[in-house]
Design goal:
146 residues, alpha/beta, Cytidine Deaminase, domain 2, 5-stranded mixed beta sheet, 20% strand, globular, hydrolase, metal-binding, Cytidine_deaminase-like, EC 3.5.4.33, tRNA_aden_deaminase
């Protein structure tokens, strides 16, 4: 059965790619009608681009797949709660649903907005599965860097 856990595991595969590349291990997939239409993982270091976050790359791939700038019926699965920059892009995409594995009190959109949602009013935001695996991957990454 395909469910949120299945798709979050796809996002985790992307996060592992980032980890292997020495990038902060965050991964994302965009799903529409039970099909992954966009994938991404952090590539900030590789591309020397501070905007090359997993969500941004997955969104761009989804837009290109659909030939559209809106994702009203799609769901983004991301291993860590989006930052303010990614929240802005998600707002403009009008994405229908966002599911994240792990909260990020330090770098998420909430740091700038408090509990006020920066997402489109129709976007549903949910904490989802695979929180522990996502947190452990982040912890291991930063322990190796220190």
């Amino acid at each position: 059965m395909i469910d949120d856990t299945f798709y979050m595991k796809q996002a985790l595969k992307e996060a592992h790619k980032a980890f292997e590349d020495g990038e902060v291990p965050i991964g994302a997939v965009v799903v529409l009608n039970n099909q992954v239409i966009g994938r991404g993982h952090n590539q900030v270091e590789r591309l020397n681009d501070c905007t090359a976050h997993a969500e941004m790359i997955a969104l761009t791939a989804a837009f290109n797949t659909l030939g559209s700038k809106y994702l009203m019926e799609a769901t983004l699965y991301v291993t860590v709660e989006p930052c303010l920059m990614c929240a802005g892009a998600l707002y403009w995409s009008k994405i229908g649903r966002i599911v994240y594995a792990a909260a990020d009190d330090k770098n998420s959109y909430r740091r700038a907005t408090g509990e006020r949602s920066p997402f489109h009013p129709k976007t549903k935001l949910e904490a989802g599965p695979c929180e522990e695996e996502s947190l452990q991957l982040m912890k291991t990454f930063f322990e190796q860097r220190r």
